[in-house]
Predict the 3D structure of the following.
Amino acid sequence: MSDISTALARSVSEIFRMLQVLEEHRYIARGDDGYRLTNRLFALGMGQPPVRNLVAIALPVMGEVARETGQSCHMAVASGAEMVVILGVEAPSLSGFAIRVGYRRPLHWSASGRVLLAFQSSDARDAMLEDVRQTGADIDLTALTAELDAITAAGLNTTPSPVLTGITDVSVPILAMGSARAALTVPFVDGPGARVTLVALQTVLHRAAATISKQLAPDIRKGATHTICGQNATDY
């Protein structure tokens, strides 16, 4: 509490009251190393109709991807300078690698994030990259732009996992009016027990993304503007 008081240049009594209210409403929680954010804001965002509709449409499709490939899959959307996982389906086999819902990572550091950046209009991409730059991230804009253009040309992003050895992240866009509204990703685990090859997996993912995009079309035609995960998304 004293650290927060010092950082915000507020009295301890003021901070005490604020923290008390936030804790009562479950926005923060106390741990061994101090206060931490809970997932309450994330849960509130997930309850909004645009996200709820996307999740409802994508869940059965992603379940079929997991059954057909034997791999886990997850779906992420852009949230400021980060991508955030809003839905995940675990592998049906005894072993697999899954990403938890709520996981966040800078857009330019993840397969999902680079897909979300790549499949945008020039203006939208520039705005998203500006959000990334404002976080203080040290990025080579020329190299990153070339990589994003290559992803757009290929129609997907296939890259070794930056986190774990032996996993290849394969990510495709879920498109709405030509722009990525979400990214569908499989952390592919290869080996003797794999049900499909990496090439076959890419085909399965493209088909699944197209199915989700098609089912989103009625919502897109409504032309409504909603706020999703802290950003405005038109024609979601």
Residues 42-234 form a domain with the Beta-Lactamase fold (CATH 3.30.450.40). Residues 147 and 202 are 19 Å apart (CA to CA). The two ends are 41 Å apart (CA to CA).
